[in-house]
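F.,

This is the one I mentioned.
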């Protein structure tokens, strides 16, 4: 399925916020070699998302953003590792925004307030148990804006997704990660973890240019 941007999505998900050590970012976060010597700062994110509605149907997603660095004169984030369980999401994410989506299996179960999420084909390489609190509060990317630069297939993509919803502070009850597949966040403590349910998100059309700088933004 060919699904051009912009995309409007809705669902639920967990947002884990960190300040990652520089050495962890360089050694464990799947950065391209040319970005390993850059200075990274600000908040980094891990997101586990259950998209209930999207232009390519329902799917799950796990992604990692190490923080921000200076790229082309701007402070920008980048997604260095991301998995989905939808071929259409994978293909369109790469084509629309240069997001390097990979395909794997997800299992998301809930008992009471606790969520067990397992990620990985054949055997799960990430398992996490999360328990959201009961007090809701509004969340909105206007207060923590996300500006991304992705590089894929000799092209640069810049996009600023936006979203809002209802948040709940969350406890992590247990986590294991195989660092061969995803950054080893089980050795770190997040600053805060939030469960967003429900939320809505928009991914607009990206600004696209080849690495020689010629603008390829769709008209």
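My design for it:
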């Amino acid at each position: 399925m060919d699904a051009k941007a912009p995309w409007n999505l809705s669902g639920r998900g967990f947002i884990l916020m960190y300040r990652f050590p520089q050495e962890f970012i360089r050694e464990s976060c799947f950065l391209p070699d040319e970005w390993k010597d850059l200075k990274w700062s600000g908040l980094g994110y891990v997101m586990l998302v259950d998209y209930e509605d999207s232009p390519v149907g329902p799917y799950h997603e796990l992604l990692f953003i190490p923080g921000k660095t200076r790229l082309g004169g701007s402070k920008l984030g980048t997604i260095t590792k991301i998995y989905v369980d939808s071929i259409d999401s994978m293909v369109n994410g790469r084509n629309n925004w240069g997001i390097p989506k990979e395909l794997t299996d997800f299992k998301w179960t809930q008992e009471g307030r606790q969520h067990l999420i397992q990620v990985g084909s054949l055997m799960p390489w990430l398992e996490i148990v999360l328990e959201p609190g009961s007090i809701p509060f509004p969340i909105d990317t206007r207060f923590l804006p996300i500006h991304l630069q992705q590089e894929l297939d000799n092209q640069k993509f810049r996009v600023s997704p936006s979203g809002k919803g209802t948040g709940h502070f969350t406890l992590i009850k247990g986590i294991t990660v195989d660092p061969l597949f995803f950054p080893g966040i089980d050795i770190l403590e997040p600053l805060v973890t939030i469960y967003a349910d429900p939320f809505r998100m928009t991914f607009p059309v990206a600004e696209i240019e080849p690495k020689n700088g010629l603008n390829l933004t769709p008209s």
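Helices lie at 22-28, 87-97.

Talk soon.
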